[in-house]
Task: inverse folding
């Protein structure tokens, strides 16, 4: 029979086997004489932290030494009158620093561009989607509206502009963009009070037709009605 070195409980273990275990730190372990004890690794962990700290300090000292050596080299070149080498040294230092700053600048520019877009295009698209969509459908409409919007600088300030279907800048206004979505059959199911189905227009047409066809009353009334609808028609 194979015995486990450690058990959480002795339940279900026969009495003979239970006698082979002793309780230790809330667990039951085999009572074996001469068993090597687990090695204390706390000292090793402390040593690891010390080594990491030493490596960090060594890196800092190395940087200081490199800067000092560079300064001393430039001072020696200055005293010797070796202008060419001195200019080369300064050029290398300048190029390295310029690359570092350009990298930071590009990173900041990217972050700023993202934030500006979120505050302009993102907010405008959300407002339009919330205004047009039926309850619960704004999220589905939002990416289609965002695709038609962009931001550009006008008079030193970011302004939201409307793009055409090909993604190019257009003269379309935000209100015209709203109307375009309202009248697009593809988005009809998402739009509150959409005109894309033509139901409203059809109803209006029928009503207008009925009004035009309803010419009754006396002869004078009929003549007045015809004159109002066909002003160029001679009635005499």
Result:
């Amino acid at each position: 029979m194979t015995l486990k070195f450690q058990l959480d409980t002795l339940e279900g273990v026969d009495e003979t086997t239970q006698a082979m275990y002793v309780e230790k730190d809330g667990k039951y372990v085999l009572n074996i004489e001469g068993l090597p004890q687990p090695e204390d690794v706390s000292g090793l962990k402390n040593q690891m932290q010390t080594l990491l700290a030493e490596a960090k300090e060594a890196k800092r000292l190395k940087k200081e030494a490199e800067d000092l050596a560079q300064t001393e080299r430039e001072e020696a070149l200055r005293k010797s009158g070796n202008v060419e080498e001195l200019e080369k040294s300064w050029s290398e230092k300048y190029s390295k620093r310029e690359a570092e700053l350009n990298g930071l600048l590009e990173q900041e520019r990217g972050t700023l561009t993202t934030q500006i877009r979120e505050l302009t295009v993102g907010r405008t698209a959300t407002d339009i989607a919330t205004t047009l969509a039926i309850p619960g459908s704004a999220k589905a409409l939002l990416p289609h509206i965002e695709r038609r919007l962009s931001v550009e600088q006008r008079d030193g300030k970011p302004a939201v502009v409307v793009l055409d279907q090909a993604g190019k800048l257009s003269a379309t206004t935000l209100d015209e963009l709203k109307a375009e979505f309202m009248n697009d059959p593809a988005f009809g199911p998402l739009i509150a009070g959409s005109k894309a189905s033509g139901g409203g227009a059809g109803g209006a047409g029928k009503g207008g037709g009925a009004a035009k066809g309803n010419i009754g009353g006396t002869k004078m009334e009929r003549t007045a009605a015809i004159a109002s609808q066909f002003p160029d028609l001679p009635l005499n």
User: Anything to note?
Assistant: Confidence is low (pLDDT under 50) at residues 198-216. The helical segments are 15-18, 42-80, 83-132, 138-146, 174-182, 199-213, 219-229.
